[in-house]
Amino acid sequence: MYKLLIRPLLFLFDPEKVHYFTFSLIRFFNKIGFGSLFKAIYEVKDARLEREVFGIKFKNPVGLAAGFDKDAKLYQELSNFGFGFIEIGTLTPVGQEGNPKKRLFRLKEDNAIINRMGFNNGGVLEAVERLKKNNGVLIGGNIGKNKVTPNEDAVNDYEICFEALFPYVDYFVVNVSSPNTPNLRALQEKEPLTKLLQVLQNLNSKKQIPKPILLKIAPDLTDEQLLDIIEIVNETKIAGVIATNTTLSREGLQSENKAEMGGLSGKPLTKRSTEVIRFLSEKSNQSFPIIGVGGIHSADDAIEKLEAGASLVQLYTGFIYEGPALVKAINKKILAKL
User: Fold this and answer.
1) Digit-coded pLDDT (tens) for 215-245
2) CB proximity list for 168: less than 8 A, separation 6 or greater
3) Is position 178 annotated as part of the catalytic site?
4) pTM score of the predicted model
5) Binding site annotation covers 69?
6) Helices (H) and strands (E) in the chain, counts
7) Active-site residue, from 177, 178, 281, 284
8) Class of 38-336 per CATH?
9) pLDDT 10s digits, 73-97
């Protein structure tokens, strides 16, 4: 029903406006009691789907990637679609508007999206107030820096977000790989990245019960840079990696919007993100967990990433194009392969 009726209607309108409209719809249907119906339709309950990764027990390995519920406004309702975990953010210390509109583009012919949102969010403290009401949803907190913060001061921004979110999230994701904040990707270089992760790990070690810290990386890194990532993960002893964020590549695109600036997500990213997962898994001798994300539009896409070395997977663009039935299909396929 989603692909036949709902998606064609939604795709007639501006994608950013539709995003907020969809949020309102989901919230409304949950308020009038449809939450349990959504759960009954989309949730696959089976103990064999449970995964223990970086010390956390996930009820199933399919999560919602960061960027969909940036401000933690809808995580409770979204969890009713069968997700095993929800990642909120990217959050910054101070709320910011993000980049000028129009900044979100569908590439229908390519089953893709280009975004140049620019970490638009209401700030970490607003999200914290909403997370205080969490009723059992496993939450990842994706953190970044404000646009106006120079790279030499970026560590402070990550520290602020880490401390504010610590009591309310189950794991952290350090985002230095978005292409939409000027110079942010420069923080992926070995020296600044090691310093940033080490500072956060030092903060983490002072907590009574430390929480897993993961690094989200770009798909555009070279093999040499990926080997650096492995070295950094082992040196700083962070919990793992999320592979991958959006790409700057435009190879093979058909859609008229292909020249738009920003990060590309969706089907064109399927192959590359899986290559990065496989490379990291093999070259590190599976020494740390990987969450696979990028171009998952079918159950087979998810299985491919799991077989390449991912412990968990996340959806974003595939969820928009395929609908919530994709979550169920992936979990069913995982069970069928056991």
Assistant:
1) 999 999 999 999 999 999 999 999 999 999 9
2) 128, 131, 132, 134, 139, 141
3) yes
4) 0.97
5) yes
6) 12, 13
7) 178
8) alpha beta
9) 999 999 999 999 999 999 999 999 9
